[in-house]
Amino acid sequence: MITIAIANQKGGVGKTTTAINIATAMAATGWKTLLIDLDPQGNASTGLGLGNDDRESSSYELLVEGAPLVSCIQPTSIPGMDIVPATQDLSGAEVELVAVEDRTARLSKALSGHMGHDIAFIDCPPSLGLLTLNALSAADTLLVPLQCEFFALEGLSQLLQTVERVQSRFNPDLGIIGIALTMFDRRNRLTDQVADDVRDCLGNLVFESVIPRNVRLSEAPSHGLPALVYDHNCPGSRAYISLARELIGRIPGERKAA
Ligand code: ADP
Ligand code: MG
Fold it and tell me: Where does the AAA domain lie (predicted)?
């Protein structure tokens, strides 16, 4: 299994939208896919149609109570895609984990040796606290959604410092599989300029596929569906399919699904 953390400490940059839709695209391609919702807001769980009452298990149990992974996994309505949902008690985890000895390694221990899926995506909360540190410590690699806006690069340098810290202390092999530009608006010159600057600065790390600002992507979660199911042909869905194709191209051969 390859584990990909979707992280950026900024809120509202498209982490959850990317997690839901890229996971759906991977499942549609035949990869057995797991989505781990590590944001106490639970937007990935809601966006996949799991209301509060439908969450039988949670990432809180996995991280804080040490429940086995298999007991925290639930199926979704998407064939080939399972989820570890997030519940509100996860908001206490940052504090509860502080006193725990292996506090940054909880998720990595829970995932280690898991054979039931080909790929796992971790939807991170908008902070660089213990939940995100758990995700970065457990992940093979990181996918960073970057919103095309003026301060995009500023936030990124802080994230990259955290990645270096995690590499030196907890997870030396942590990679960055790519940076995905989100909410791109071709009519807005500033967005265009930011996208060019990011590419100048980070080169091939930036995926060629760009996710456009597309209202269908923001409507889909209120129907409890990935955009890829809600409207598979809208520009946003097509962009995520293209991003998934690029992602597969970057996954090392020995980690590819059979
Ligand atoms: P994050 O998880 O980083 O906080 P979200 O994925 O939840 O970000 O996105 C924030 C908001 O923007 C949500 O309401 C979402 O539906 C919307 N959104 C995300 N990506 C797009 C996009 N490409 N076009 C239009 N709306 C988007
Ligand atoms: Mg989110």
Answer: 3-175
